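Input structure tokens:
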């Protein structure tokens, strides 16, 4: 887990939004390699893996057979290989989940080292100044893979830890978890194990348009995804919360609308751009954007307005 801050939360936040900063640890990559790597993953993941061009990057889900989330990944498609970038802490579980289905398949599964990331409008320029190409998709640097994985409208690049260390040595600011979590909330990106988990249905994340192909062949957990797509309704949605007072509630606080306990606050931060504390929560469908809610915890309460995600498109950042 990253340090909460490196001494200046405000400076770290502003660097992420208006310049560039290094965030670590970040995604963990699992490599699937071999003649059957692409066909193997196509039968498991929700994305059309074969349809991703070599050097391309796309979101995808690995689902349980019943259709709920096992992992949320970015796919780095290469020739005879694919890297799956899982959320922090998820690499080992992802590798184990894939291995359960590898029967007589010409492919190897290997968990790589945790990667770092560079976020912010100046990320590409910072990488180029360090002699690292900022790809449109992904490619190999001498130290390892570099991949474009945008955070909503904000540039974000996955980089090897050695590259991140070089950038910091060159004076690029580090950003701790307080600033990075706030920017992630603004972008409306859920984190596996924090905002979403094994009880979550893909359509609840708001990322189906990016992560699911409805034209490819069968894949693990497809039936539930297709059924919900045809019926068009889920019980919960990922929502943003903008607090109406300058009070930062704790993660785990209850979100209440009238007599209905609508959900739980899962991520929280203080947005300077929106001038309010903000959060993410999976809320029941009865509670929608524009609705007022109360945030309750053991020793306090505050109020908030429910909003669509993303909370900010970073225009002009």
């Amino acid at each position: 887990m990253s340090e909460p801050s490196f001494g200046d939360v405000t400076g770290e936040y502003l660097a992420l939004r208006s310049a560039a900063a290094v965030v670590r640890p970040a995604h963990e990559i699992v490599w699937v390699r071999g003649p059957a790597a692409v066909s193997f993953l196509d039968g498991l993941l929700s994305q059309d893996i074969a349809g991703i061009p070599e050097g391309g990057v796309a979101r995808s889900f690995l689902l349980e057979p019943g259709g709920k989330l096992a992992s949320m990944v970015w796919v780095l498609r290469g020739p005879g290989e694919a890297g799956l970038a899982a959320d922090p802490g998820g690499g080992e579980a992802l590798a184990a989940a894939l291995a359960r289905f590898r029967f007589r398949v010409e492919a190897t599964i290997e968990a790589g080292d945790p990667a770092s990331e560079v976020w912010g409008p100046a990320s590409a320029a910072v990488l180029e100044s360090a002699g690292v190409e900022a790809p449109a998709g992904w490619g190999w640097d001498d130290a390892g893979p570099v991949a474009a994985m945008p955070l909503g409208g904000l540039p974000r690049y996955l980089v090897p830890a050695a590259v991140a260390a070089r950038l910091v040595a060159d004076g690029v600011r580090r950003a701790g978890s307080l600033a990075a979590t706030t920017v992630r909330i603004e972008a409306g990106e859920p984190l596996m194990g924090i905002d979403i988990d094994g009880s979550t249905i893909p359509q609840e994340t708001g990322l189906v348009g990016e992560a699911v192909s409805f034209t490819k062949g069968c894949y693990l957990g497809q039936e539930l995804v297709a059924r919900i797509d045809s019926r068009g309704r889920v019980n919960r949605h990922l929502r943003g919360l903008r607090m109406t007072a300058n009070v930062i509630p704790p993660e785990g606080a209850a979100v209440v609308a009238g007599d209905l306990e609508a959900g739980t606050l899962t991520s929280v931060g203080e947005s300077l751009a929106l001038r309010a504390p903000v959060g993410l929560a999976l809320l029941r469908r009865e509670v929608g954007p524009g609705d007022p809610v109360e945030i309750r915890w053991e020793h306090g309460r505050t109020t908030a307005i429910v909003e669509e995600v993303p909370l900010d498109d970073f225009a002009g950042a």
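The chain has two domains: 9-187, 235-308. The mean pLDDT is 95.
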